[in-house]
Structures are given as structure tokens and as C-alpha cells.
Amino acid sequence: MNHELNFSGKALICNFEWYEWPYGIAVNAIFTDKNHEVGAIKFLCDESNEKYNEISNLSDDDILDRLVTALKNGKLDSSIQNMFTWQSEVAKNGFNKISPIIAQLSDAF
Questions:
Q1: 32-60 residue pLDDT tens
Q2: Residue 79 to residue 14: CA distance in whole angstroms
Q3: How far is it, in rounded angstroms, from Cα 19 to Cα 76?
Q4: Which pTM was predicted?
């Protein structure tokens, strides 16, 4: 499902993918504007994180709802800014593929 949000005047669409991570919960967020990918963030919550039990007891849909809400409300703006900064820096080195950064899933809670 596509989730629309606005970051610093930029209209973005975000799609989520769950993936296996042996240390806890992992969600990959892929951001696009119009028709091309602009970046990705891997939101992780390690089993040692103080909020892990709270988050792991939620359904997948509830976790994604909280993540979407946090993205739309600006709670994770620093992660999105870091994503744009990182992509800009890798592009300066001629690397034009999406290279995800890592952020704390628990920051959405």
C-alpha cells in the first residue's frame, strides 16, 4: 500500500516491506517521488531495545500504522533528512543506486 507524506515541501510516497532480521523486528521503507526511488530507510528494533516487548506484541498492521503516523507527523523527520543527505553523498561518488540507511523503529513509538 502506498502512503503519501510531505517532507520539507516534497511530496513523497512510501512503501513498506517486512524482512527477516535475526535480531528483532525489521521494516524497509522505500521512498519515491513521482516515478523514481529517492531513498530507503531500514527501521529496526533489536530485541535488546527497551520498547521491543511493546512493539513485538502489536500486529504487523498496528506497527505499520504507528510508523506511517510518525512519518506523517514529523516524528521521524531526522531519519528522512539523513536518508536524503546519505543519498546525496553517495551520488557524489557516482553511485546512483538506492542505499538504505538504518533508523530506530522504536522512535516511532
A1: 998 889 999 999 999 999 999 999 999 99
A2: 13
A3: 20
A4: 0.90
Evaluate the CA torsion angle 67, 71, 74, 79 in order and state its sign. Answer: positive
Strands of the sheet containing 36-46, edge to edge, are 3-7, 10-18, 24-33, 36-46, 101-104
Q: What share of the chain is helix, strand, coil (3-state, %, to 5)?
A: 35, 35, 30
In sequence order, the β-bridge partners of residue 102 are 42
CA distance 55 to 106: 8
Calpha distance 104→106 (Å, rounded):
5
Q: Which three cell numbers stand for residue 21?
A: 532480521
**CB distance 3 to 68 below 8 Å:** yes
